[in-house]
Design goal:
This protein is an alpha+beta fold. It has three domains: about 5-235, no CATH class; about 240-320, 2-Layer Sandwich (Alpha-Beta Plaits), CATH 3.30.70; about 325-380, no CATH class. The protein contains eleven helices and 19 strands. It has helices at about 15-25, 30-40, 70-80, 85-105, 120-135, 165-170, 190-200, 255-265, 295-305, 350-360, 365-380; strands at about 5-10, 45-50, 55-65, 70, 115, 140-145, 150, 155, 160-165, 180-185, 210-215, 225-235, 240-250, 270-275, 285-290, 315-320, 325-330, 335-340, 345-350. The strands form seven sheets. The protein has a four-stranded mixed sheet with strand order 6-1-12-11. A hairpin with a 2-residue loop joins β8 (about 155) and β9. The longest helix is centred in the N-terminal third of the chain and has 22 residues, at about 85-105.
Amino acid sequence: MKKIAYFELESGISGDMLLGSLIDLGGDVKVLDDVIKELELKDVHIEVEDRNGGVKGKNVRIRSKDQPHRKVSDIIEMIKESGLDEEVKERSIEAFEMLGEVEADIHDESFEDLELHETGMVDSIIDIVGSIALFFDLEIEKAYSSTVSLGEGYTECEHGRLPVPVPATERLLKDWEVDLGSKEGELVTPSGAVLLRVLTEQEEVPDMKLKKIGVGFGSREMETPNALRIFLGLQTNLEESVRVIRFYVDDMSPEILGYAMDKIREKALDAYMVPSSGKKGRQGWEVNIIVEKSDLKKVIDIVFDETSTLGLRIEKTRRVVADRETESVQTDWGEVKMKVAFDENRASPEYESCRKIAEKKDVPLKKVYEKAKEEYEKEK
């Protein structure tokens, strides 16, 4: 079953609240130590304490002597050069690119020269990269968020007294469902907003078998608990919302189109081509791509960069997947991952797992497939 999470945002979200809730879910604080080490951040100390504000949870404080403002380009370079997991690096870079683009537009500066203030300090860097690292360490496969409570009034920052939500938060949450004016104060910080964007989406939440609730407290005192709750569980229904991208090409060589399809499949759930005829009897291909909403923009960018199409169609639909889990079998050439469906105990070797072994050991791919199936049948 897929491990999923639901963010309840009645009290908004900030980076430290998300750190607290992920640690309360069982995230290892050592993950944050690794982030600090990999990003070469000096004189930093993480404090985690238990809190009880009507509900029990964690409060995270980041202590540091070093609080310089950093250029967004320098932060991104720090992340690229680190030894963090590739998925953590990718999402972290995406987060700071979003922040940089928004702040550059607000202050009419170039992205390369932009210096981040609050979100460029050590604590905010750890809030963002640390939250992403903990999220993936918990092996959460998909996350959803509720309507976001933004708060009201004014807040003080380095740019002076600003209305809530501050401009960066407002732009980051454009097109999201928000609740305005329900509580006094800044409930969503720019770091909290960008983490919502890169980790969650506002879609209908699938039914789940609840396993645990994590609670992370913010630093501000409020009449109601200033806490972010994350519900963690296993998806129990077999339907999920996806997007289907379709377009037609008749002027690309098979080699270049094949390369484009490989790039698309790296980000999509599935992609395939169907022979078709277009205008004036020209023979070509209809390309169909199934993608999660969170990866839609990335796939669209690849389509326009790598193919000749000038337009495409997008449809919202739902797909049904077999209830399954991943197991591993040992072959003569190494370990192969298997996708195992629960209903009839059907199993299929994972392509990428087999491909890596075939390339590394110089073995025909079909032999790796056959051997993996054979070993699975023996163990069954």
